């Protein structure tokens, strides 16, 4: 519309190649530049996933408002999904309004995921569903085999559409998991979409971090030993609660034992 590439201008103004620099410096500056080239302003702005916004974004967002005194700024935030280390000070003084009903998950998935949640109590849904499946096997190759078998049973035996199934990777490096699944996909008759959303007749494979805020009918969460710590519980919470109806968790036996102990611990 303007002929300008604001992100490229931001990169030229603040050179750097890391993801941290992109999200914390270049993109906020590009957003601020948009206020200089666009005439359009808004009476109300809704910001979702606001836990991922650092302070540098908020000035530019407020500048998008036609009148900051009379306009409406709605901010939705889940601190338990703060898996990126970018915490900003929210530009609001009002007390938060808590949404305490879980409208996404079945009761078994809620119980599995909210064991790793801290904050305002959330009401469990009344929606029944299958128990969460946990598959503990050792080694990346065997775990990849387990992921593929689970996905194939859902699609072939239970007639789920491939696009309703998502494999989420919560182990590092992700490339190892991607390569292992890719090598097994053809033999199993599964077409993967690696980090490509919305591709028909394909099963999406993505990371927990990239899929945050989204949902799928059926999820296989391939979890690594490195996320089983108090500092990484957000990853477990996010990964499990992306599933609406069916959830399978694949990992080492030690990892699943740790997760089970956390899930079975009494609420504080």
Offer a few descriptive terms.
Rossmann fold; 2 domains; two-stranded parallel ribbon; alpha/beta; 268 residues; globular; 16% strand; 9 helices; six-stranded parallel sheet
Largest beta-sheet details: 6 strands, parallel
- Overall, the morphology is globular
How many β-strand runs? 8
Give the quaternary arrangement of the chains: single chain
Q: CA-to-CA gap between the ends? A: 54 Å
- Summed up, the helix count is 9
Domains, number: 2
What class do helices, strands and sheet pairing give? alpha/beta
The order of strands across the largest sheet is 3-8-7-4-6-5
Mean pLDDT: 90
Supply the CATH architecture of the largest domain. Answer: 3-Layer(aba) Sandwich
Radius of gyration: 21 Å
Topology of this protein?
Elements: H1 6-13, H2 19-37, E1 44-47, H3 55-63, E2 72-75, H4 107-114, E3 133-136, H5 140-157, E4 165-170, H6 174-188, E5 192-194, E6 203-207, H7 208-211, E7 216-223, H8 233-241, E8 243-251, H9 253-264
Parallel strand pairs: 1-2, 3-8, 4-6, 4-7, 5-6, 7-8
Helix pairs in contact: 1-2, 2-3, 4-8, 5-6
Task: Give me a quick take on this structure.
The chain has 268 residues and is an alpha/beta fold. It contains nine helices and eight strands. α1 packs across α2 (19-37).
């Amino acid at each position: 519309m303007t002929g300008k590439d604001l992100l490229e201008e931001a990169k030229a103004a603040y050179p750097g190649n890391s993801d941290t620099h992109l999200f914390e410096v270049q993109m906020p500056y590009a957003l601020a530049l948009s206020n200089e080239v666009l005439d359009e302003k808004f009476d109300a702005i809704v910001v979702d996933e606001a836990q991922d916004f650092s302070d540098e974004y908020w000035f530019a967002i407020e500048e998008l408002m036609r009148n900051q005194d009379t306009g409406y700024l709605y901010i939705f935030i889940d601190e338990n999904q703060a898996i990126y280390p970018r915490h900003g000070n929210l530009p609001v003084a009002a007390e938060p309004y808590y949404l305490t009903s879980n409208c996404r998950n079945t009761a078994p998935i809620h119980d599995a995921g909210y064991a790793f949640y801290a904050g305002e109590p959330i009401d469990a849904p009344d929606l029944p569903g299958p128990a969460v499946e946990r598959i503990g096997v050792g080694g990346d190759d065997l775990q990849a085999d387990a992921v593929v078998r689970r996905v194939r049973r859902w699609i072939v035996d239970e007639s789920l559409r491939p696009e309703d199934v998502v494999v989420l990777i919560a182990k590092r490096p992700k490339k190892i998991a991607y390569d292992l699944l890719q090598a097994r996909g053809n033999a199993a008759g599964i077409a993967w979409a690696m980090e490509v959303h919305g591709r028909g007749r394909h099963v999406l494979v993505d990371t927990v971090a990239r899929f945050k805020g989204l949902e799928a009918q059926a999820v296989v969460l391939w979890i690594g030993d490195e996320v089983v710590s108090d500092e990484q519980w957000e990853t477990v919470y996010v990964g499990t609660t992306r599933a609406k109806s069916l959830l399978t968790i694949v990992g080492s036996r030690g990892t699943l034992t740790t997760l089970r102990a956390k899930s079975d611990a009494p609420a504080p």
